[in-house]
Specification:
Pfam families: Sdh5 (PF03937). By secondary structure, the chain is mainly alpha-helical. The chain contains five helices and no strands. It has one domain: Orthogonal Bundle (DNA polymerase, domain 1). The N and C termini lie far apart (35 Å). The model has no long low-confidence stretch (mean pLDDT 92).
Length: 86
Amino acid sequence: MNETHENRLKRIWMRSKYRGIREMDLILQQFCKDHLEDMDDAALTLYDALLYENDQDLYQWVTGQVETPEKFRALVHDISLTFNRT
């Protein structure tokens, strides 16, 4: 995909903001406000991949109800810190 960095951030922001589950909208919006601008390409790629996961799964991972898959574990931990702060 030939996408500018700015467009990538906008797309990721929109996908974070409009998830389908209001709780995930709020959690991911706050996470993006706190971290999106500072993420490098590798972190953005991983976060973008996470956004393709099912909202129900994401919510259970972030809230600690279900163990997070290894590839997303550190990222979900960071997101859960946002969740626990709100």
